[in-house]
Specification:
Two copies of one chain form a homodimer. Chain A has 173 residues and is an all-alpha fold. Chain A is built from nine helices and no strands. At the A-B interface, helix 7, helix 8 and helix 9 of A face helix 7, helix 8 and helix 9 of B. Chain A binds a DNA duplex (30 and 30 nucleotides) through helix 1 and helix 3.
Chain lengths: 173, 173
DNA sequence: TTCGGTAACGGATATCTTGTCCGTCATCAA
DNA sequence: TTGATGACGGACAAGATATCCGTTACCGAA
């Protein structure tokens, strides 16, 4: 098991990170601000993370671990997966809003997309443009989620999944 | 008309910017590096641009001006517009690759999307989820272009437009 | 409960980047 | 030709970064 001190320090840093991103945006604070907020020594930060971006990766890895445990065999299960995805997004809307529209956007988007792609790929049949289609559908879903967040994450997001289904059915033909 | 000195300075800065982004990525160089490359005084940079991001905006504004002059009334004209878009992207692939996957990603994506949305909106009929649909299609197109770039911009991009048409037709129903 | 190992600490530091100031010189357009 | 304007180099303070040190406090296995 991991040393308790390590766990505590990482937790403190990650919590501070989340709070600061939501409050000031990804580029709105320095590492100095971060370690002040986390109440952790400067050296300690660098003992655990190489840069701010590592912290973002750290969070996505956690989330990914959480999501990969869900079953994705049947269409219904995949719908459940997406609902879980939307639910998590909704409950951390402030964080995602800051991420998707800031300096962490590139990494956040890549991570988000890779999580989504796994499920989308299962919906797309073999095709000459399969790779293009998967990229397009993932991009479409991500764009819809982003717009949902920008509009204040109203509703359960079911409209998004419905609209998405429309596109998926087109991809199948 | 604009003072020749002003034109020359801006051109020098923008050329250096393009070269450095393509070579080292958006976050891979400092303003110091930029003015060294452009062989321009530090003060001079700040007399024209507030930050690195302004230079990116400057480039997109140019591109936008170029594209808005194209007609977009008929479906065929809109297809031509998209072909022009893809053509330009292809001939500046190195630049876009660095932008869409780097720190300038947020602004670059916003700009790219806003250029695309105008055309996409014309394809989508009135609908209860019109806004969502437009966002999705724009996102899909952008994702396809990004994948195209990552794969080495092979071909004319016609496959992208074909696949895109499939999705558009689904959105119309 | 002890004890060797390990993590966190504060403080210091060298280096880089940023944005702004100045007076001087070169270039422009009228 | 000339008054206006832009570009220049040099310098500067402020802030951030990443790494060093010796010391202290905590952990968990024996």
């Amino acid at each position: 098991m991991m040393d308790r001190r390590v766990r505590k320090t990482r937790e403190a840093l990650y919590s501070a990170f989340v709070a600061l991103v939501a409050e000031r945006g990804y580029d709105g604070f320095s590492i100095q601000d971060l370690i002040d907020e986390a109440d952790v020594g400067r050296t300690t930060f660098y003992a655990h993370f190489k840069a701010k971006e590592d912290l973002l990766q750290f969070g996505f890895n956690r989330w990914r671990d959480e999501l990969t445990s869900l079953p994705k065999s049947t269409a219904a299960e995949r719908r459940g997966f997406m609902e879980a995805l939307l639910g998590h997004t909704k409950s951390h809307a402030g964080l995602f809003a800051a991420l998707l529209g800031g300096g962490g956007g590139a990494l956040a988007e890549t991570e988000f997309r890779s999580i989504v792609e796994e499920v989308v790929a299962a919906e797309v049949g073999p095709d000459e443009h399969r790779a293009t289609m998967i990229a397009m559908l993932s991009g479409a879903l991500l764009a819809a989620i982003r717009q949902w967040i920008d509009a204040g994450v109203k509703g359960s997001g079911a409209e998004i999944l419905d609209a998405f289904d429309k596109l998926v059915s087109a991809a199948k033909r």
